[in-house]
TrEMBL record:
<feature type="region of interest" description="Disordered">
    <location>
        <begin position="894"/>
        <end position="923"/>
    </location>
</feature>
<keyword id="KW-0560">Oxidoreductase</keyword>
<feature type="compositionally biased region" description="Acidic residues">
    <location>
        <begin position="894"/>
        <end position="904"/>
    </location>
</feature>
<dbReference type="InterPro" id="IPR001594">
    <property type="entry name" value="Palmitoyltrfase_DHHC"/>
</dbReference>
<feature type="domain" description="NADH:flavin oxidoreductase/NADH oxidase N-terminal">
    <location>
        <begin position="397"/>
        <end position="735"/>
    </location>
</feature>
<dbReference type="GO" id="GO:0005829">
    <property type="term" value="C:cytosol"/>
</dbReference>
<feature type="transmembrane region" description="Helical">
    <location>
        <begin position="1002"/>
        <end position="1022"/>
    </location>
</feature>
<feature type="transmembrane region" description="Helical">
    <location>
        <begin position="1056"/>
        <end position="1082"/>
    </location>
</feature>
<dbReference type="InterPro" id="IPR001155">
    <property type="entry name" value="OxRdtase_FMN_N"/>
</dbReference>
<dbReference type="GO" id="GO:0010181">
    <property type="term" value="F:FMN binding"/>
</dbReference>
<dbReference type="Pfam" id="PF00724">
    <property type="entry name" value="Oxidored_FMN"/>
</dbReference>
<feature type="region of interest" description="Disordered">
    <location>
        <begin position="1133"/>
        <end position="1162"/>
    </location>
</feature>
<keyword id="KW-1133">Transmembrane helix</keyword>
<dbReference type="InterPro" id="IPR045247">
    <property type="entry name" value="Oye-like"/>
</dbReference>
<feature type="domain" description="Palmitoyltransferase DHHC">
    <location>
        <begin position="955"/>
        <end position="1088"/>
    </location>
</feature>
<comment type="similarity">
    <text>Belongs to the NADH:flavin oxidoreductase/NADH oxidase family.</text>
</comment>
<dbReference type="GO" id="GO:0016628">
    <property type="term" value="F:oxidoreductase activity, acting on the CH-CH group of donors, NAD or NADP as acceptor"/>
</dbReference>
Length: 1162
């Protein structure tokens, strides 16, 4: 047997004492830490031995999530009682009392075993029925001089015991077995046999007390016989993972010692090792358990570790450092703390943080009948408090559950994934890796998944794409699914399905008709069959012959066996929703006259024959069934549903199945007639005593309600699991659900099979864009250390700041960049302070979302508008626009035949040089026609184009590009608009101001709006990603399911609209920033060449201009903006006057061109 497996955990890297642990056995219990509460006798149950609410409070105070409590020593029979006030497990009243305790511990996600106890000679006649003598292995009185018996009249000396006869010993073994069965019924996770500390089992084991000469005395094998027989008796009813034992080698408690303890306990422990128990509990001989002779070096724990390969627990007087040491060096797997738990209800937390312990009061360990029971029991304070801990309760929906059957499945919560038909396996019916991913996404530790309805045979198939369990390939495909679920510590059943008449010949072998109980069609049903050729109308089925029905039963059995071979934990027979088993059960479909029709017993015969066949191969804990009483799915109803399902539930009650799954008639499962007033589930609860599961349209509140009132033991959720793979986590924190897309429930008509299947997001998953934006804003906000109450006003403050900056940006050349930045900051603070008082009034989330969307649109408009203006007033853009207009007007642009070799060698930029055409159509030097592309610096390009684009102008006159009036040659101002215009004196300061004023103003405003829009988009994404989930207006923003949903509410639609606008704003921001980068850095080397050229040096007053000067920047704008935006900007109003007549011929247009001297340009 291998050593116990330890799951990886972040805590295990620190201290092993607080790391997870898996106990032994076939179906082991999983613990979250290794601090165990040892069994502690407290004597608080009086004469009856029934645990009270005070006992419940005591244990729930000391329970922790994933922690193990071993409840106090509990009598297995009336004659086993040695102490007055100790509890028992031999009456139904005691079982009911213990149920309160186990339920309270499980509500706190804890685990609890109970110690089964026979005190033997450690008792008194006053504690025995009818005043009989206590019993023991031999008649040797306990007289150690240290202890006395606790009776109803006080403390008394121990009585002389009576020797147990050999024929009485099987009765003792039977008492252990019955008490263990009662323990499981009471809700305990397991039992621990008390074979230590001088009680009955150890009295037989140790030769100082056992003086027998029969088969239970003498040799070690004989003396250990009773202990091993008791274990075998318990193991015949319980799984090995539910059974443990406590022994105390080398101890001397109550005068019980052995002359050869090493040989005795070596034999016993070696016998225990193959049993694969949950754990072996060793008591170190110290403290209350005095040390006997011959204790081995290293202690009892090390002695036992060398002999036992399973989970080893040690106890008796350990403190924190000793517990850490014994687990770190591997001598024990867990440590049981006793008295320290009495005075420290939060001992696990104290051990974890290394906090001091409360002192215990020994006088209150075992109270006398006249003492207050709560004193020293439930009144010890927790850490940092001086008030006693109160009982707490959480939703039963998340408490553990043990299913039915002989070896039941253990669940950690009661949220079950209902079977959901998804049709993703194609023609073969073989589950793929995509199916495995789908189920793995929805599995949770200790959670149950019921896999989708699965065909039991080729003729059972009613839907194209449904999986099967009738071929070896399908079994291998399902193994991937079960392995993926089990890897996440989940449980998975599969639903076995025969659709009956709900099918189509295209889905049947060789196109045969589907079968049913009778040849009754699906008339009036609004749905249609799913086939490989699309949707098809249902057909009238063929009635099954009587001789064919055993074959159907055999199909169920074979599919169930295949399911176990595929790794499923169990199967659920689909006897609901109008499929074959219900078609036989309901008299609206079943019109047969043989033994499978007529009376209720006959109509239910196929269902129970199928169940019995499956139960011949599977344990009852692996079999379940689904029913839909009072439903009317696929037109399947019954005239007397109460009588029909009353009979069915009564027959199911005796089968001890894992569970019965009941479908409430609502939603997709239409409500039929005669439904009880309080619903189907209460109707079934009153008639079925096993585990009852309910489903169909439950939300969190309804699920909690049905758990609280005990109507059902667990709730199966269907469609919510489709769109919420982390539904269990969402239910725990009461988080909103993703909406589902009904169009992708079944195989999608278009797109990948994963659509609406494995692409629904969890609470932790967001889009990549959202994460990027959120991180940017997250770090910026946290770096600025902005208080939360100011974060909402910030976005509105930025909006105010941007609006004011637009008005003052025209003064930028006077105020400077830093002054404007200071003004922006001031406006931002004032605007934020003002809006901080206004925003709280906007309580409506819908109103806030409308404002967010409006702001987003305003920001986007201003970003685009200012970007366009910045481009429109740029000389390069204007020139490009004129070029487009020339092409539209069908004006030729001829190339210069000769090039300036000097310019070409210097690699200058294209320039426009004038040419002329005489009235006779011939070209002459000195005459202006249209611009031609040659080499010229950027500034000269602009001026040349300005000078050459003046049709209908008189010779010597130039055209004002602002007011479109003529002005005198070489004039610096237009006589009409009185504004500076471009002219030939490039070094004149007015030129730069005229060209740059609008560009700077619009460009600066564009950058402001760009910053505001980027921040706003990033901030809102931060809100969506990092705010509390209780804020619904942000929790579901930018979730993929919102895009797919066809039922978007107004609030969600606004969220989605804003998200799209914010993303678009970010995209524009990134594009614009890239343009700015190009403006500063592009073509630097070319500009240096231009500025160093003698001609350009002359134009600029003989000085070399920096590539970052105004002229150089203008040139770069022409390269960047002119090429990127002229097509869009060509739609703006023309800045060039059109010809007088659009219909003039090309020759006439050329003749109208005013001649210019080339010297005027050069």
């Amino acid at each position: 047997m291998s050593r116990p497996h330890t799951p990886s955990s972040p805590m295990s890297k620190a201290l092993k004492l607080f790391s997870p642990l898996i106990l032994g056995g076939k179906k082991p219990v999983q613990l979250q830490h290794r601090v165990i509460m040892a069994p502690l006798t407290r004597l608080r149950t009086g004469e009856s031995g029934v645990p009270t609410d005070l006992v419940t409070e005591y244990y729930v105070q000391r329970s922790t999530p994933g922690g193990l409590i071993i409840a106090e020593a509990t009598n297995i029979s009336p004659t086993a009682r040695g102490y007055f006030g100790s509890p028992g497990l031999y009456t139904h009243e005691q079982v009911e009392g213990w149920k309160k305790v186990t339920r309270a511990v499980h509500e706190k996600q804890g685990k609890i075993f109970v110690q089964l106890w026979h005190s033997g000679r450690v008792g008194h006649v006053l504690n025995q029925p009818n005043g009989e003598q206590p019993v023991s292995a031999s008649s040797i009185v306990l007289d150690d001089g240290l202890s006395v018996a606790v009776t109803s009249v006080g403390r008394q000396p121990y009585s002389v015991p009576r020797v147990l006869e050999t024929h009485e010993l099987p009765g003792i073994v039977a008492d252990y077995k019955r008490a263990a069965e009662y323990a499981i019924e009471a809700g305990f996770d397991g039992v621990e046999l008390h074979g230590a500390n001088g009680y009955l089992l150890e009295q037989f084991l140790c030769d100082s007390v056992n003086k027998r000469t029969d088969g239970y005395g003498g040799s070690i094998e004989n003396r250990a016989r009773l202990t091993l027989e008791a274990l075998d008796g318990v193991l015949s009813s319980l799984d090995s993972s539910q059974v443990a034992i406590r022994v105390s080698p080398y101890g001397n408690t109550f005068g019980c010692t052995d002359s050869t303890p090493e040989e005795t306990y070596s034999y016993l422990i070696k016998k225990l090792s193959p049993l694969n128990l949950a754990y072996l509990h060793i008591v170190e001989p110290r403290g209350l358990h005095p040390t006997a002779q011959n204790v081995p070096e290293g202690g009892t724990t090390k002695f036992s570790r060398d002999l036992y390969d399973g989970v080893l627990m040690t106890s008796s007087g350990f403190d924190r450092s000793e517990g850490i040491e014994v687990t770190e060096n591997g001598l024990a797997d867990c440590v049981a703390y006793g008295r320290s738990f009495i005075s420290n209800p939060d001992l696990v937390h104290r051990l974890e943080v290394d906090a001091p312990w409360n002192d215990f009061d020994y006088k209150t360990f075992y109270p006398l009948p006249d003492m207050p029971m709560a004193t020293g029991y439930t009144d010890y304070p927790a850490l940092h408090t001086k008030v006693k801990l109160k009982m707490t309760s959480t939703s039963n929906l998340f408490s553990p559950l043990t299913l039915g059957g002989k070896t039941p499945v253990q669940l950690q919560h009661r949220v079950v994934m209902a079977p959901l038909t998804r049709l993703r396996t194609g023609e073969s019916g073989v589950p793929t890796d995509l199916v495995a991913e789908y189920y793995a996404q929805r599995s949770t530790p200790g959670g149950l998944i019921i896999a989708e309805a699965t065909n039991i045979s080729p003729t059972a198939r009613g839907y194209f794409g449904a999986p099967g369990l009738f071929t070896s390939e399908q079994v291998e495909g399902w193994k991937k699914v079960t392995s993926a679920v089990h890897a996440k510590d989940g449980k998975i059943f599969v639903q076995l399905w025969h659709t009956g008449r709900v099918g189509h010949p295209l889905n049947q072998p060789n196109g045969i008709l589907p079968v049913s109980s009778s040849a009754v069609g699906l008339d009036g049903v609004n749905t249609s069959a799913v086939t490989r050729e699309g949707r098809g109308k249902y057909v009238t089925p063929r009635a099954l012959e009587t001789r064919e029905i055993p074959g159907i039963v055999a199909d169920y059995k074979r599919a169930a066996e295949n399911a176990i071979a595929a790794g499923f934990d169990g199967v659920e027979l689909h006897g609901a929703n109008g499929y074959l088993l219900e078609q036989f059960l309901c008299d609206s479909v079943n019109k047969r006259t043989d033994k499978y029709g007529g009376g209720i017993e006959n109509r239910a015969r196929v269902m129970f024959e199928a169940l019995e066949a499956v139960l011949t191969s599977l344990d009852s804990s692996q079999v379940a069934i689904r029913l839909s009483p009072f439903g009317v799915t696929f037109g399947c109803t019954d005239s007397t549903p109460a009588d029909t399902y009353g009979y069915v539930l009564k027959q199911l009650d005796v089968l001890d199945l894992a569970y019965v799954h009941v479908v409430e008639p609502r939603g997709f499962h239409f409500r039929g007639p005669q439904v009880p007033e309080d619903g189907t589930t209460p109707f079934c609860r009153a008639r079925y005593n096993g585990i009852l599961m309910t489903s169909s349209g439950f939300d969190r509140a309804e699920g909690e309600k049905v758990m609280e009132n005990g109507t059902a033991d667990c709730v199966a959720y269907g469609r919510p699991f489709i769109s919420n793979p982390d539904l269990v986590a969402r239910l725990k924190v009461n988080a909103p659900w993703n909406p589902w897309d009904r169009k992708t429930f079944y195989m999608p008509a278009k797109g990948a099979l994963s659509l609406g299947y494995t692409d629904y997001p969890t609470l932790e998953q967001k889009s990549c864009l959202l994460k990027l934006l959120a991180l940017i804003s997250f770090f910026s906000i946290n770096m600025l250390n902005i208080p939360p109450q100011w974060r909402d006003p910030m976005q509105w403050g930025f909006l105010c700041a941007a609006s004011f900056v637009r008005g003052i940006s025209c003064f930028m050349r006077y105020a400077g960049v830093f002054c404007v930045a200071a003004g922006m900051l001031l406006i931002f603070l004032v605007g934020g302070l003002f809006l901080h008082a206004v925003i709280p009034i906007m309580a409506s989330s819908t109103l806030q979302l409308i404002c967010h969307v409006a702001v987003s649109l305003v920001l986007l408009f201003n970003i685009y508008f200012n970007y366009a203006l910045c481009c429109a007033t740029n000389p390069g853009v204007i020139t490009a626009k004129w070029k487009v207009e020339a092409e539209l007007w069908d004006v030729d642009i001829e190339e210069e035949e000769e090039e300036d070799d000097d310019d070409k060698e210097n690699g200058l930029l294209p320039r426009i040089r004038p040419s002329a055409v005489n009235p006779d159509g011939k070209q002459h030097e000195g005459q202006v026609k249209l611009p031609h592309v040659q080499l010229m610096d950027p500034q000269s390009v602009h001026v040349a184009r300005q000078r050459s684009r003046q049709p209908n102008a008189e010779d010597g006159m130039s055209f004002c590009r602002r007011c479109r009036h003529f002005r005198p040659p070489r004039a610096h101002h237009c006589s009409v608009c009185d504004r500076c215009i471009a002219h030939l004196d490039h070094h004149c300061p007015w030129v730069n101001n005229c060209i740059g004023r609008d560009n700077y103003r619009y460009f600066f405003t564009f950058l402001v709006w760009l910053a505001v829009g980027s921040y706003y988009a990033a901030y809102m994404s931060y809100q969506a990603a990092f705010t509390d989930l209780s804020r619904e207006q942000y929790a579901r923003m930018l979730v993929l399911a919102e895009i797919r949903s066809l039922n978007l509410s107004a609030s969600n639609a606004l969220q989605f609209a804003f998200s799209i606008s914010a993303a678009a704003g970010l995209a524009v921001s990134i594009l614009a920033i890239w343009h700015v980068f190009l403006i500063v850095t592009a073509q630097t080397s070319v500009e240096l060449q231009i500025n160093r050229h003698p001609r350009n040096r002359r134009l600029h007053g003989g000085k070399v201009v920096s590539p970052y000067s105004t002229d150089s920047i203008h040139g770069n704008w022409e390269l960047v903006f002119g090429r990127c935006s002229y097509k869009i900007l060509s739609l703006m109003p023309s800045t060039r006057p059109p010809p007088n007549e659009r219909t003039l011929s090309k020759k006439t247009k050329v003749e109208q061109t005013t001649a210019r001297s080339p010297d005027a340009i050069v």
